[in-house]
Amino acid sequence: MSEVDDLVAKIMSQLKTGDSSSNTSSSATATSSNSSDPDLTAKDFPLFKNHPEMIKSPGGKPVKDITFQDIVDNKIDSKELRIAPSTLRLQGKLAAEAGRTQIQKNFQRAAELTQVPDDRVLEMYGALRPFRSTKQELLDISEELKTKYNAPICSNWFKEAATNYEKHKKLKGDN
Predict the structure, then answer these.
(1) Average pLDDT over residues 28-42
(2) What's the predicted TM-score (pTM) here?
């Protein structure tokens, strides 16, 4: 059973019994990663099931301590239900240990993007569509990612896009 399935089952159980005191975990898992984290291997997947103590909200609250009632009563800010960059990095580590390096890279990019506001992520995504941006606009986004959001992996991705779009005539004005 997946972490999401576990969460849904716990919430449904809580709703049926009316028990608002039992702990219900949020599906938006997060962790705080530090040097004291254990060495993780592919056997540690799923992380929430095998190491729930490592999963924390972006604000540092243990996710296992967040209840459905806390959410209903607005005791938990919606931002606390998002995934934290440290969780994504840990999931990436698990993927790498399982030989899935491309998935690890995806998790690394996702971890960086958690620092970028949602509306800006959507604008950046739109800028990557063929014929939507000039080379300089893509390079400006690259610089923004690097300096404003400390997202070097995503920054390099935009640099590569600028170069490839120029090479393949996919920049604004090329159509």
Answers:
(1) 51
(2) 0.71
